Each structure stands twice: as structure tokens, then as C-alpha cells.
Amino acid sequence: MKRIRFIVNPISGGKDKSGVLAAIARHLDLSLYVPEILFTTAPGEAESLARNADADVIVAVGGDGTVDEVARGVLGTGKSLGIIPCGSGDGLALHLGISRRPEQAVLTLNEGRTVLADVARMNGKPFFCTAGLGLDARVSMDFAKSTSRGLSQYIALAWEQWKHNPSEHYILDAEGLHWEGDAIFLTVANANQWGNQARIAPMASLRDGLLDVIAVLPFHTIEIPDLATRLMTGQAASSRRFLHFSARQLHVERSRSGAVHCDGDPAQGGTAFDFCVEPGVLPILAPASKLSKL
Predict the structure, then answer these.
(1) What is the pTM for the complete model shown?
(2) Do β-strands 57-62 and 80-85 pair in parallel, antiparallel, or remain unpaired?
(3) Neighbouring C-alpha atoms within 13 Å toward the C-beta of 291
(4) Which of 147, 208, 226, 238 is deepest in the core (most CB within 10 A)?
């Protein structure tokens, strides 16, 4: 039998976790797993709880921040990552096809099917869904400070940033490709979305050894409904305002320092960035029915 450690963020997404704990108790296959459940008490704790665990499978029970911490702790240890999504975005879980219903997420753990996922890095820091510069990074900064969560709040903050902040100038170099110009924001994607099915990189795969690079070019306010619809329906790449290409490595320079984010975790950054991808280094438990689409 395998040892499985659940690392629970009790406050992620503002959601009570009693339903999740009940789902684990009712549906986890105890002929496969010996479970242990731990609760985080401070930011950053999940990473050490994952890295130091005497377990075969480490399950992040929380939102994108918790998943990121646990994934960093699992990376390079030979352990497998599981996810029970309980956040406001749940980007990696949704890309993987993991249900937001706790009982279904637990059944995915019982299936025991593993995908070897790529891991991306920005200036050496790992990320699992997306990293970004420009408007989406500034929105992530505002979102982190906000007491409200969810897609509607993210949209409201994005609107405020759109009204008051201009585009930035970027220089991109990637394996023989060179591009220079102005963009509202730049996203480098390992998975296909920010979260909540907002698929900024609909063609992205966790198993292709490539980064998907998206520069959103300046657009008019009247175009926002069309661009938002494309984003939520997986058609973003078809817009002439979206510059898209794939690469294993990318060097970025921008006109001024400012906000950056890795998987929605914002920070202040400089003007030069190096991105790369490590193929197939993170084992993740995913629904068997979704493996061929990842």
C-alpha cells in the first residue's frame, strides 16, 4: 500500500473544508492508501510539509497557491502530486481535468494514473501553469491584496488596470525568433489557462516540452467583449490581437521594471527574464479519461 499525505489549506478560496474531509473519509480506497492529513498554518508551510513527507503521494487540498507550494515541495523527490482543488481559480487542476467536486477528485486519486508533466521556470523559479508580465501581473498584485475572490473580482480589477495603465515595450528572443513591439501583457504558459477555464494558451500541453508564449497586442475598448469571449471559449489564439508561438527557451526584455507573476503569485521584477522548460519531471495524478488530452 502507498502512503498518502493530504496537505490542507483551511482558508483557501474562503471555503469550509469539512466537505473535502468527508469525501476523503468516504471515498479514499484504503486498500490502496494509508492516509495522513495535515493542515497548514502559515504561507510557505505546504512546501516543506510536502518535501519532508514520508509518503508516496502528496495531495494539495487548496487553491493555486497551495498547489504551487506542494508541487515545489514534490519536485525532484520522486513523489507524486495529487490535487483536490478548493480555490478561486484552480488552473492546473482544470487543465488536468480534475473535478472541483471533492468526491470526484478523490476517485481520481484512487485511479492512480500518473502523467509526467513539464515544469517551466522564470529566472530559475518554477511555475506550473503560467507566468506573466504587464497587465495580468499587475492584476495579480491587486488580486492578492483584495479581500474578494473569484472571476468577477478578477475581471473588475483587470478593468481598472486597463483604464489606467498603458502597454509596455517588449523584446522577445526564442531559438531564432525575434520580435519587438508593444503589448498589453505577456504570458508564458506551461498549462492552458490562468484558472476558471480562462484559456489564455488553449493549445498548451503539459507533455510537449514547450512553452507557449502569448503577447496580447494593444486593442481598443470596443474589442474587449470579443477578446473575453475568445478567452473563455478556448479561441484566444484565433484573434489577431494575440501573438502566439512555442519555444523551449525564451529571453524577454521590457522597457521598465514592475509587476511579474508566477502562477498568480505576484512580485516586483526587473527588466530581463529568462524562461525555460524541464520536460516530464513532475508526476501528477490525473483522471484516466483525460491523459491523452494533456
Answers:
(1) 0.92
(2) parallel
(3) 14
(4) 208
